[in-house]
Design a protein that fits this description.
- This protein is α/β, with parallel strands linked by helices.
- It has one domain: 3-Layer(aba) Sandwich (Rossmann fold), CATH 3.40.50.150.
- It is built from ten helices and ten strands.
- The strands form two sheets. An eight-stranded mixed beta sheet has the order 5-4-3-6-7-9-8-10, sandwiched between helices. Strands 1-2 form a two-stranded antiparallel sheet.
């Protein structure tokens, strides 16, 4: 179902997507030209690429737990797999980790929250984008959290804190400890109800300059529906559909707008 949905949605995305010339919002034009289409080759890209190669050659077998969409109707599933297989399955392509780096580098968030640490490549990209930030990343699987911790140590990334456990249990305490949320990356549970639940919880700590990033917004019909509901939220002023990611902004004083941009 998800493959068919993604294929049809990608075709629709290609028809809707605009290039730079079609963007009439100064804020969105600047974001697209300076961040989304930034062709600079940052040295951090090499760092992330090398760590990804190490992880893809890691044949160690670990027991992993999955609380997300893969669990189906169950609360969670556990299984054993090689680290390299889990990295292929759960980590983003390099271009998307590079985009996370650029977004963090551009917006300079002080307090960043990530749902779904996996092997830590996305967390590292966000942390490297702004070494002054405090990145909190939530991971349901202790074994994967250890893989990520090893990545952070290898990369000398010291501004990431991993919180292990079911998001439903760990999120309230984490939000209670954070003064605000400058950037949130939702990449932990690709189902409509949990996605919307996490979104509404995080809204309590959002502000005018916050940016929320949602992964796999067209992964399934229910994620399409979740994305539409997020776009229609009264607190959301502007959204950008990049197909893989959905960017959400809360800027006051602008008319509600939705953009689809070519990557």
């Amino acid at each position: 179902m998800s493959f068919i949905n993604k294929t049809s949605e990608f075709i629709a995305y290609l028809f809707r997507a605009k290039g730079l010339h079609g963007l009439h919002s100064p804020f969105v034009y600047q974001l697209a030209s300076e961040v989304l289409h930034d062709k600079n080759q940052y040295p951090e890209y090499v760092t992330l690429h090398q760590q990804r190669k190490r992880l893809l050659s890691n044949r160690n077998v670990i027991e992993t737990v999955d609380f997300g969409a893969s669990a189906g109707s169950k609360m969670f599933i556990t299984y054993r797999a090689r680290v390299q297989q889990l990295v292929k399955r759960r980590s983003h392509a390099e271009q998307f980790n590079q985009l996370l780096f650029r977004l963090s580098h551009h917006f300079k968030p002080e307090y960043t929250l990530e749902f779904g640490t996996a092997a830590g490549l996305g967390s590292a990209a966000l942390a490297l984008g702004n070494p002054e930030s405090k990145v909190t990343t939530l991971e349901g699987c202790a074994s994967m959290a250890q893989v990520a911790a090893n990545s952070f140590e290898r990369l000398k990334v010291k501004n990431v804190n991993i919180v292990i456990g079911n998001f439903n249990q760990t999120l309230p305490e984490v939000l209670n400890e954070l003064p605000r949320l400058d950037l949130v990356f939702f990449d932990g549970n690709h189902q409509q109800i949990p996605t919307l639940d996490y979104f509404h919880h995080c809204l309590t700590k959002a502000h005018d300059d916050s940016i929320f990033i949602f992964d796999d917004i067209h992964w399934s019909a229910e994620m399409d529906e979740a994305w539409k509901k997020i776009q229609n939220s009264d607190q959301v002023s502007l959204t950008i559909d990049l197909f893989q990611f959905g960017l959400v902004f809360f800027r006051k004083g602008i008319a509600k707008q939705h953009f689809t941009i070519k990557m």
